[in-house]
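Form 7-S
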Amino acid sequence: MSSTSLKIYEIREKQVWENFVTSQEEHSFLHSWAWGEFNKSMGDKIWRLGVYESGELIAVALLIKVHARRGDFLFVPHGPIIENQKYNLKFKILEILTKEFRKAAKEEKTSFVRVSPLFKNTEENAEVFRKLQYRPAPIYMHAEVTWTLSLKKSENELLYGMRKNTRNLVRRAEKEEVKIEFGTSPDALDEFMKLYKQTSHKHSFIPFSKRYIENEIKAFDQEKKCSIKIYLAKYSGQCISGAIIVFYGNSAFYHHGASGSGFSKIPASYLLQWEAMKDAKKENKEFYNFWGIAKNEEDKKHPWYGLSLFKKGFGGERKDYLHAQDLVISPLYWLSYAVDKARLWKRGV
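Output:
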């Protein structure tokens, strides 16, 4: 089949987009309608592209124009999403999308297009991108190595599927009378941001702004097919741990986490995750996605080692996705490449 038999149209109907994305086996909230709306609220231009075969929608791609100091670029987060039964057309679908990406990049005067696909990290998938003149990006954009737990079990089975120490810490937090609350109110956001700033200072990373997280919450809070909750763990009247969980499609995603500098001996984060997992199960989600973990799980010097150990303690399995791929449009790309390389070195990952 020639790629000329495939057609691309911009999708403007929310229901068409959401029904397609959430019906596919591999998807994340980064390709939801709400994520597009969130990026628009942050001042970014977006395109919702649909690939059609004989009038049937078989793939979608959310394309975002990202504004950066080093120069703007186009980005596809955790996509494109391809219809489950059409993976045999992967090359043809990516070929026609790449032509559209090139066209948009030249019109928007950006130096490259970055694609972070939810394709398995295999040589076969890497070869598809190589044939289309992509190169591995110097840095990741979103989680590429994730930890996912199936919720297709009873609560008791989930509890006993945890590492023994993790299970004991959940129970200990209950005995210590840690209270878990959730909501999306301005007060809940303020509580989370206090913890988030402490966490960023402790672990030396640049946090997202309050406006960023506030707009993310607004975008997901207004949708029917997805929701978002700020979870807060309180001990002796003080908020000591927090998380922002996105409920979308068949999964709940642990997107942001934070913990205070005090009460380190109170295992509030363990109980918080357990309560979020139970809520996801009540909402008939099939998976709980803990988001990113360290690629090298045995490297104790990795800045994510402790966090990865924490997530893995709840049980689940590792998923490796193909590394982000860059489509070079102009020589200015190499300036961005150098900046990203420096950022990666600074992160120590």
